[in-house]
RNA polymerase sigma-70 factor (ECF subfamily)
Amino acid sequence: MILEDLSDSQLLKLARRDAAAFEALIRRHAPRVHALATSLVGAASADDVVQEVFFSVYRNLARFRFEAEFSTWLHRIALNACYNQLRRKQPEPISDLEPVLVSPLESPECLAERSQLRELIEAGMRGLPPEQREAFALREFSGLEYAQIAQITGAQLGTVKSRINRAKAALRSYLTARGVVPEGELHV
C-alpha cells in the first residue's frame, strides 16, 4: 500500500497506530501550514509553529471525529498556534512568503525587484486588520477554498469573501501608493 495515494481520512485512521501514516500526513500538509505560519508570524518563528501544530495534531488524533475535513481542523490548529506565538512575543518581520525560484538566467536586478516587492507585501499585510490578514493568508498561502476558510474562522461565506477582497484591495492600494502597480488579480 502506498500511503501517499490514500485520502486524509484514510491516513488519519491509520495514523492512530502507524507512524508512517502520520508522517505521510505531515509531508502532505506541512508546506501549506509553513506558508501560513510564515505569513502570520514570520520565517524565524514558522518552524516552531509548524512543529507545535503537528505535535498538537498527533496528541489529539483520537479526538478527531471526522465531522469536518482534516485540512480544516489542521488549519484551525495552525491559526491557534500562530496566535499563541504572537502573544508570546512580538511579531517578527515576515520574510520568504513564497519560495524564491532562482533561474541562472535571472538578473540581479530582477532578484532585487522581487525581494523589494516581497518586503512591500509583508509590510502591507502587517497593516491589515487581523480578520482580513487571516482570511487572505488562508486563501493565498494555504490555498484553501472560501468554504473551508469560513469553517475554520467561524465566519459566514460572504464575510470571508468580503475580507479577502478587502485585503486584496488594501494591499493593491498599499502597493500602488509605493509605486508598484499590480497587474490583474493580486496573488502573492
Observations:
- The mean pLDDT is 84.
